[in-house]
């Protein structure tokens, strides 16, 4: 079966390579001639583990090819997937569907036989119907059908997610289109992957609902982390306790500096706008957007506080700048909020990221980019870990302490064991740990500040401590 993938961004390139691995004849199309030329030469424009080998392998097998010629690509194709960008629209935060609708017009101009047009881009409810209307103005209705097939790929593990998905969602009102899409995904039937068949609107909303729910879990545990810091609890233990409940699950319960990336920020915003436009406001999602935006900015203040509330003239080592490990993606990364605020406060920055420095350098000026983590730490006054790359997990606590002038380490991903860091002499700060635990000598003051004991009780505790 021959299929066309229109758009060679993250979703289009990964999906095209994986469909080719399934044995489909896949042609990836893009208007960017330079990008297509690089792909034809084996150059992969994005960082995704295993993608370069998958593209190379299927290019050699001739199941995967790249072109700018949509007309030639569509010749004999049974399905065309739209996998173009849907960035947040300036001004209102809704998804910008310009590229999707332009793609629909381009496809319509080249339909010569029955074709299933599939939106794989993340699009708001109603987009599929509009695509259907655009094509229907140029093509007889019996020559095409429109379907929705949202992707659920995580950057850094996208190939595994595509090959072994939790589910496949297919939205269409056409039995003929349904049969073709089931045939395309037949290799997944063999491993009994659940396939959800539904209408266009349901498939479109399912994608947004999934991302909004996961973003909500992240935001929830981040707020619980703040409460833990005030009450003496530990967020990692709380997360484990609730995550073992099968109704809740352990994934996405890792406290940190807030979510970023290409999906969650724009998708929660777009879903929020859709709710408002349909007079059905999504209050939880609105709160998630607001809390997450503020949290990323609050993380800079945590670093400043750990440095004695003054970073002017101090050098801070930054470990990781991408929004998550195993990607070079900087879109809405927490570092884009944290680092400029540290610079505004007078800090000098030395940074290292295993994959994202080239991308980040264009967005984060006046930073010294280093060859590795230890290089960034050398001579710095303090350090902040923003992205939990695996190579940072193996850093030696004693060496970190030796390289830092003031032995201050702020861990925004809770990567390290507190006792290991503090035994090495580091002033270690992490997310969701009360000062009553990180600084035992201040426990009484912390309790007093919370109003849990009065002055008379303070005196009794002090006398008891003296007696002991």
Q: Can you walk through the features of this model?
A:
With 468 residues, the protein is α/β, with parallel strands linked by helices. The chain folds into two domains: 2-198, Rossmann fold; 199-433, Rossmann fold. The protein has 22 helices and 14 strands. A six-stranded parallel sheet has the order 3-2-1-4-5-6, with helices on both faces. Helix 15 links the parallel strand 10 (348-352) and strand 11. Helix 10 (200-231) packs across helix 12. The longest helix has 32 residues, at 200-231. It starts with a strand and ends with a helix. The relative contact order is 0.08.
Task: Offer a quick outline of the entry.
With 468 residues, this protein is of the alpha/beta class. Helices cover 46% and strands 13% of the residues.
């Amino acid at each position: 079966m021959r299929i066309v993938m229109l758009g060679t961004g993250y979703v289009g390139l990964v999906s095209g390579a994986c469909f080719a691995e399934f044995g489909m004849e896949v042609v990836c199309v893009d208007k960017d001639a330079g990008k297509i030329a690089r792909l034809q030469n084996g150059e992969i424009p994005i960082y995704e583990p295993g993608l370069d080998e998958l593209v190379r392998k299927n290019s050699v097998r001739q199941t995967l090819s790249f072109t700018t010629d949509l007309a030639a690509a569509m010749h004999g194709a049974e399905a065309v997937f739209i996998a173009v960008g849907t960035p947040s629209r300036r001004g209102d935060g809704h998804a910008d569907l310009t590229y999707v609708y332009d793609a629909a017009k381009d496809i319509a101009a080249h339909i010569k036989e029955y074709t299933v047009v599939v939106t794989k881009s993340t699009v708001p409810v109603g987009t599929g119907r509009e695509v259907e209307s655009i094509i229907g103005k140029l093509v007889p209705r019996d020559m095409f059908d429109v379907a929705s097939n949202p992707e659920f790929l995580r950057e850094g593990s996208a190939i595994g997610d595509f090959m072994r998905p939790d589910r496949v969602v297919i939205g269409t009102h056409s039995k003929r289109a349904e049969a073709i899409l089931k045939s395309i995904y037949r290799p997944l039937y063999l491993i009994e992957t659940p396939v959800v068949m539904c209408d266009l609107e349901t498939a479109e909303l399912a994608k947004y609902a999934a991302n909004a729910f996961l973003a909500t879990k992240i935001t929830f545990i981040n707020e619980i982390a703040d409460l833990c810091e005030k009450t003496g609890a530990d967020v990692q233990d709380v997360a484990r306790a609730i995550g073992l409940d099968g109704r809740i699950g352990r994934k996405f319960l890792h406290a940190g500096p807030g979510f970023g990336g290409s999906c969650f920020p724009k998708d929660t915003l777009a879903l929020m706008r859709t709710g408002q436009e349909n007079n059905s406001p999504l209050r939880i999602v609105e709160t998630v957007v607001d809390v997450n935006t503020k949290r990323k900015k609050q993380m800079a203040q945590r670093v400043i506080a750990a440095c004695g509330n003054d970073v002017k003239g101090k050098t801070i080592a930054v470990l990781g700048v991408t929004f998550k490990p195993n990607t070079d993606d900087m879109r809405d990364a927490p570092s884009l909020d944290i680092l400029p605020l540290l610079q505004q406060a007078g800090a000098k920055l030395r940074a290292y990221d295993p994959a994202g420095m080239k991308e980040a350098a264009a967005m984060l000026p006046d930073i010294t980019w280093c060859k590795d983590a230890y290089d960034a730490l050398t001579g710095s006054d303090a350090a902040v870990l923003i992205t939990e790359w695996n190579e940072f997990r193996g850093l030696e606590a004693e060496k970190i302490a030796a390289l830092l002038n003031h032995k201050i380490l702020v861990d925004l991903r809770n990567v390290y064991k507190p006792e290991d860091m503090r035994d090495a002499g580091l002033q270690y700060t992490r997310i969701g740990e009360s000062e009553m635990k990180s600084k035992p000598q201040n426990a009484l003051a912390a309790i007093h500040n919370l109003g849990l004991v009065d002055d008379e009780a303070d005196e009794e505790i002090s006398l008891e401590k003296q007696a002991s």
